[in-house]
Write a structure and sequence with these properties.
Number of helices: 8
Number of domains: 1
Radius of gyration: 18 Å
Oligomer: single chain
Distance between the termini: 28 Å
Mean pLDDT: 94
């Protein structure tokens, strides 16, 4: 079983429902049992980890949320203390000692945002600019964190990783 740590009020009701539907669908497709573990505020994160451990989650994923991102160091620490492998959406979690992340490269997003700011400052109307999606994604793996939870990362996965932290 794997757990999904989510902040149920991070986004609007429709967006949150779609995220939950997507992760439930992915779990079904992969034949995995999913446990949704909510954390409404930073003070709920420790009890969320207690729930994951009590329910014997084998691993967990952190669903996107500004609040959870802001608590990335604490989440990584709780994961390490509970020897619970975690997958994150941003490399900051891995830089703080987390196991692995896969997500949009935030530096690239910020650079691309600057081009939009430049266009707007030169007179472009924001409504006339096309909506863009991230185009650069990165997989970051922390081998020290893997060893700490007793995992061996497959060589094929290490070869496709954008960065491997020793």
């Amino acid at each position: 079983m794997f757990a999904a740590l989510l902040h149920p009020h991070a986004y609007g009701e429709h967006t949150t429902a779609n995220v939950v539907k997507d992760i439930e669908g992915a779990a079904r497709t992969l034949g995995l049992q999913l446990q949704l573990v909510p954390a409404d505020r930073p003070g709920d994160i420790a009890s969320a980890f207690s729930t994951m451990v009590k329910e014997r989650a084998d691993a967990f994923i952190v669903l996107p949320s500004p609040m959870l991102f802001g608590e990335h160091r604490r989440i990584v620490e709780l994961a390490a203390n509970n020897r619970l492998p975690g997958m994150y959406q941003a490399r900051e979690f891995v830089d703080a000692g987390g196991l692995m992340s896969y997500g949009a490269n935030l530096d690239d997003l910020f650079r691309r945002t600057a081009t939009y700011v430049d266009k707007i400052l030169k007179g472009a109307k924001p409504a006339d600019l096309p909506v863009e999606r991230p185009t650069k994604f990165e997989l970051v793996i922390n081998l020290k964190a893997a060893r700490a939870v007793g995992l061996t990362i497959n060589r094929d996965i290490l070869l496709v990783a954008d960065e491997v932290i020793e």
